[in-house]
Amino acid sequence: MYLYNSATHQKEEFKTHTPGRVEMYTCGPTVYHYAHIGNLRSYIMEDVLEKYLRYAGYDVHRVMNITDVGHLTSDADEGEDKMLKGARREHKTVLEIAQFYTDAFFEDCRKLNIKRPDVVQPATGCIDEYIQIVSGLLEKGYAYQAGGNVYFDSSKLDRYYVFNDHDEEDLAVGVREGVEEDPNKRNKNDFVLWFTKSKFEDQALKWDSPWGVGYPGWHIECSGISLKYNGEYLDLHCGGIDNAFPHHTNEIAQSESYLGHPWCSHWFHVHHLNTSDGKMSKSKGEFLTVSLLEEKGYDPLAYRYFCLQSHYRKALVFTWENLDNAVAAYNKLVARIAALKPGDGDVDQAVFDAYKAKFLQQMGNDLNTSMGVTAIFDVLKAKTNDATRLALIGDFDSVLSLSLLEKAAAKRESDAKAQTTQTEGGYTVTGEGDPAIDALVLARYEAKKAKNFAEADRIRDELKQQGIEIIDTKGGASWKRV
Ligand code: AMP
Ligand code: ZN
């Protein structure tokens, strides 16, 4: 596979430390709030990458942290712990907040067909590992103690800005708007490895350490968790582009200084989902969640389709209109697949292999998911039988995870169920063949005829509560489950 590597700024052939095996790490969510659909864009694209690598024959071992401590409200080691802030907002304990939003995150993932990583590790579970790394860094002279905290000494590195040719002044933590320079730091890029003192004395979770009771910095958790589960050589590290600096930059600094050798060979960054006002973020602006999409009647998988239509290295603008277009395209695709006839002939292996090879190659070109979606349309147009088409669509969908065959089967079933009930007065009820519901629709008609509109509305509401929508048609009504 060819994949863009943020560390080398170019598309490269993806190679792993151990042939055939991928050690993969993903920065997980900070669980002080629901994930917004921007966060989930990153997780959708990382999910397709993982599934593609498996599809291409790799044995993938994927690890994800859950940030339940230590991520301050500013990336610059200043401010309040985000978890503490969430707990205070909801009058709950930090651990209750963490559990609630971790479960909510995985429920969103389930709805979006995002696979759960092989290892999911809350940051609070690996304190010993962080202490070991911080001790090692102190021993090797890469860290120092000041004002009660332990800091990484960035002046000991040959190179610090690894991802971009940033303007040092723009990025320098001390000059960022609204961020006060920490007087304990020897250099502006130094960062906290272990806190014992912060501006906020009431930090809820604290642990004993050789440097006093305190808690870990944010960056150390990902190094610690990855070293524990992925080993000393990481092949692929993923995250949203906002994490490249300072989070990933600091992860590299501390991991490589601790290990004494290069650590992660490939960095995969997903660009942002933006609203018309800029980046979607948990702390400001319109906060769109999967539940909100569902409340508005959207299928979460239509959002997945929306994401797959564009490339992960381009910012994606979210508007309701853009989402509606994706819904229409997704439904049309499902309808076309539903029109195929299962069991129509045998799979033509030569055609199957040719299309599969093309899909592998197109998706393998820097995870070109829009070409992956186009490949399904190509299969629909292919000169072959439906059995081969369905086999290919199922095969591609093991990577794209749009539940295409399941949705098509459900559509076929509901279309088959559509039945017409004729009634005496020529009034026609069309539905899914459920006599009890037909009777209610009819009762509503009778109520309307008798000018008993309150009763007619009551019946409509009762049906709505059962998830049934009535559409008045010429000379009758049709109903469907929505
Ligand atoms: P957080 O829960 O804030 O730690 O973020 C979880 C993941 O979502 C990280 O990989 C972030 O880089 C990523 N992320 C944050 N905002 C966006 C956005 N608007 N679009 C895409 N990814 C994002
Ligand atoms: Zn991380």
Q: How would you describe what is shown here?
A:
With 482 residues, the chain is an alpha/beta fold. It contains 16 helices and 18 strands.
Q: What value does the average pLDDT take?
A: 91
Helix content: 40-55%
In angstroms, what is the radius of gyration?
27 Å
Beta-strand segment tally: 18
What's the N-to-C terminus distance?
41 Å
Structural class from helices and strands? alpha/beta
Q: Rough shape?
A: globular
Described by strand count, sense and barrel closure, the largest sheet is: 5 strands, parallel
Number of helices: 16
Relative strand content: 15-25%
Widest β-sheet, arrangement of strands: 5-4-3-10-11
Low-confidence blocks of residues: 172-178
Ligands present? adenosine monophosphate, zinc ion
Question: What key attributes describe this structure?
Answer:
482 residues; alpha/beta; five-stranded parallel β-sheet; four-stranded antiparallel β-sheet; globular; binds adenosine monophosphate
